């Protein structure tokens, strides 16, 4: 699998899935522009230590070329300038990954709209939906100049699962459903230009924030299953990174146009594994084991 000569933009690549995707695209040989709001000189309201420079350095260390650019994807002019820079420096854009999020501190679990903080809920929707549309508006004209481009909209939950399950709050629910539908809609416009659009979800991802919440590290993450048994199905951010890289390298990727995909589902097709050699299939496990009220047991699911 090689993406030598390909240019990717991972919008929202500071941490989590975005970082995992950027690194794996780099490992396949791509030049990867990594954007976000947190740099070594300036933090976002997240107040997290991860930076876009760190991600870009990880991309380069993996074998690609990482380029960090500070961008607030709610600011149209900043995104326009980013795409102009990519055009000037590379003359092409082959892969756009919309992983912009920023809502972890904004949603309130199991609260109806009348009890949920309205300002936070509306801010969440802007971060989760407006950013993706603004970025697509400016980036896709460059991507479609060459046939074969790939747009990946990152969300939480497959379209099938989200259609049948209430996702935490009305604001979070709408955000995650909207991204799946957005990819479906873009597929209709991109197909005529020989480009592909999909939505993709990781499973229960061991992001930096999640590991911190459970008080574990990547090297001892299984200790968290004592307090959260179903964490046994979790995966690293690199797993969805390998899913995106495999899809981008597939010459027949247009067969997926408009579909909702998952890291675990694509692993069964493309044969890649997580860093530990397993293939966790969270979106099969969650309804069949977790939601069914069965004891936590990942046997047969990873």
Task: Provide a descriptive summary of the structure in words.
The protein has a single domain, classed as Rossmann fold. By secondary structure, it is of the alpha/beta class. The protein is globular, with a radius of gyration of 18 Å. The mean pLDDT is 96. The longest helix is centred in the middle third of the chain and has 26 residues, at 118-143. The chain is built from ten helices and seven strands. Strand 1 (7-11), helix 1 and strand 2 form a beta-alpha-beta unit. A seven-stranded parallel beta sheet has the order 3-2-1-4-5-6-7, sandwiched between helices. It has helices spanning 16-27, 52-62, 76-90, 118-143, 159-164, 170-190, 208-214, 237-249, 263-270, 282-290; strands at 7-11, 31-36, 65-70, 95-98, 150-154, 196-201, 260-262.
Name a few traits of the molecule.
302 residues, alpha/beta, Rossmann fold, seven-stranded parallel β-sheet, 12% strand, globular
């Amino acid at each position: 699998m090689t993406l030598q000569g390909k240019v990717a933009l991972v919008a929202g690549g500071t941490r989590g899935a975005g970082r995992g995707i950027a690194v794996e695209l780099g490992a396949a040989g791509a030049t990867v522009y990594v954007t976000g709001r947190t740099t070594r000189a300036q933090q976002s309201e997240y107040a997290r230590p991860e930076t876009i420079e760190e991600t870009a350095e990880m991309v380069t260390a993996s074998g690609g070329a990482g380029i960090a650019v500070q961008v607030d994807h709610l600011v149209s002019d900043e995104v326009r300038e980013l795409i102009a820079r990519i055009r000037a420096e590379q003359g092409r854009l082959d892969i756009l990954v919309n992983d912009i999020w920023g809502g972890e501190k904004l949603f309130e679990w199991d609260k109806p709209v009348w009890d949920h903080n309205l300002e936070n809920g509306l801010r969440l929707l802007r971060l989760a939906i407006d950013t993706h549309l603004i970025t697509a508006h400016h980036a896709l004209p460059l991507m479609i100049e060459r046939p074969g481009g790939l747009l990946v909209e990152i969300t939480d939950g497959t379209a099938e699962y989200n259609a049948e399950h209430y996702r935490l709050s009305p604001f979070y629910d709408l955000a995650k459903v909207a991204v799946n539908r957005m990819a479906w809609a873009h597929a209709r416009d991109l197909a005529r230009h020989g480009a592909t659009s999909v939505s993709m979800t990781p499973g229960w991802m061991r992001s930096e924030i999640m590991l911190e919440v459970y008080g574990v590290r990547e090297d001892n993450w299984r200790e968290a299953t004592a307090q959260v048994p179903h964490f046994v199905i979790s995966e690293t951010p690199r797993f969805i990174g390998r899913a995106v890289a495999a899809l981008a390298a597939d010459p027949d990727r247009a067969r997926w146009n408009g579909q909702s995909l998952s890291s675990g589902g694509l692993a069964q097709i493309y044969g890649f594994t997580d860093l530990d050699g397993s293939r966790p299939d969270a979106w099969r496990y969650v309804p069949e084991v977790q939601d069914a009220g069965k004891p936590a047991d990942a046997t047969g699911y990873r």
